[in-house]
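Journal club side-thread
Mid-discussion, someone asked how the predicted structure for our own chain would compare to the paper's figures. Pasting it here so we can look after the session.
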Amino acid sequence: PDSTGATQPQLILDSVTDSVIGQNRDITGTPYMSPDGHYLVTVDDDNGLMRIQIISERGKILDPFDIHTNLHLSDLAFQRSFTEIHQYNVFGSSGRQTDVLFVELSTGKVKMIKSLKEAIKSFDWPWSSKNRVMVSSGLFGQYIMTPSRESLFILDGRLNKLNCEITDVLKGNVVVWVGDS
């Protein structure tokens, strides 16, 4: 927000010349780009929106479709679709609630994954506003990890459901997947 409290829209930059091309419509919030560069997902927590924009092959940013949510999304993780070629899904963790939002980006289909226990309190994680991170297991992995105050949860991205809980991990909000390449 600026000095008046008004939130400024996103800027579109030319990555070759570093010049400002213009504003991204009236879209405000935290932007996330899919690994293939075809989806721009913006979390606008002030307005309770997840705004999804497709990026065309020629680089044009198309009109957004909005998903209204009261989850107060903390972080997003992308995962390639297991049902559609060259498509991605996105998982969004809630910084205040116990649910995870799943969105199939190609169709806009939304599903909730429930009962992941309470997130780390914001005041217990002063280093970042992301008090519940989401971390994908990689380009060809099928799992996503997210913490709670006292556990880590592993979600199955292929089945879009909770896979398991690892208990007795206090404030485990720094997550890294390690494995064979």
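Post-session note: The chain has a mean pLDDT of 92.
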